[in-house]
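Recall the central idea of this unit: under ordinary conditions, the amino acid sequence of a chain determines the structure it adopts. In this exercise we apply that idea directly, starting from the sequence alone.
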Amino acid sequence: MKRRIHFGFVTLLVYSLVSYFCSCSAFYLPGLAPVSFCEDGKGGEDCQTVIQLFVNRLDSVESVLPYEYDVFDFCKDAKESRPSENLGQVLFGERIESSPYKENNSIKWASRWDYILVSMPHTNIQWFSIMNSLVIVLFLSGMVAMIMLRTLHKDIARYNQVDQEDAQEESGWKQVHGDVFRPPRKGMLLSVFLGQGTQIFIMTFITLFLACLGFLSPANRGALMTCAVVLWVLLGTPAGYVSARLYKTFGGEKWKTNVLFSFICLIFVLHFYFFLMNLILWVEGSSAAIPFGTLVAILALWFGISVPLTFVGAYFGFKKPAIEQPVRTNQIPRQIPEQSFFTKPIPGIVMGGILPFGCIFIQLFFILNSIWSHQMYYMFGFLFLVFIILLITCSEATVLLCYFHLCAEDYHWWWRSFLTSGFTAVYLFVYAVHYFFSKLQIIGAASTILYFGYTMIMVLIFFLFTGTIGFFACFWFVNKIYSVVKVD
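Accordingly, the structure predicted from this sequence is:
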């Protein structure tokens, strides 16, 4: 076991270079309220004289189970006090307690993070990750630009030549114009997935943006998780709206069932895994076990805020007219020709997730280190940049493959566009398995179950997120190309 001293809950250290005879204020860290300090004997309501030192938990490289810092008798403080934790700290198993030890006054304020930063991998690896991702994006952008500016432009010009008698007999993506917007099978399930994916996307974007601004800095422990959970609860409206609007576009009429699935589908699975993991933590006596009061509060947030907001979004989504398609759909489905190996659904889906995963796998290593190897993650600027690159890569890879499939006269693109970029989550799971066996030293059945249980939750969320990005990119692309051709 190793002790990790928590410096950031009330304050870290007083600035030691300011004059002895003057009162001083601690530096302001985004996300933390500044605290003023004075000389001993001159304190008041607005000025403190004692720097409080707190500890949070015990971690081990051989277990994912955190424990309270004073789980051993020799770590107890005679005058124990427990400041209140935020929701993120509770979910991560941090139980803030006073420390029986004193702070090291020889450490200057400017050097307070040195022991953490020295242990972190060098930022050159982060730059290598960015350059690797940019190369992939440039390659895909060149491919998409070639299709848009040359091949697709020539196709549209040829198809729009009314005096070309044999244009209708040529093969290509225009030949499936009467079937390309045919509603997909299991449209309700797809619309629910897209609603949940939209909710995850907005939550992730806002959280990373705030982290880049410094409001969710590592000094404010638990702030990142707290922000994500609160945003998840408050973003039920866009999830309900997107799900209802797309379901109506697919021709669905069971709006009540759609709304029910919108807030039950993902939440039920997440809560099942969550309660199962919490039961294991409770049996093991870990501090990460969620108290009963917190569980009730989370359920109250879900039922009291998220569910009503989802209903509101679904109501406005069904009130809106269905999205108008640029071409009419034929009554009789067109027969799809025999496909080559590379244009069949499964090979295309498997290939579609490789490039997006190639953009994130280096950054993924640092994220898994911060979660399972107890390292501090602080480079949110890099993470936000990789997030943007991931959006571009998922969009371009899906559009590229969608165009190839349409040229092969396969018009089943709805689910395929979602699964193509969503398959990146499968590579994420494979990498997590590799990380478990090659980088970690975890022993014990409980820790193994917890690792893979939390990994499956991450994979599910990432699947919905990437799948939604690919779908909407492809939806825009298909609408765009079929809106500029002349159809008799």
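The longest helix spans residues 445-482.
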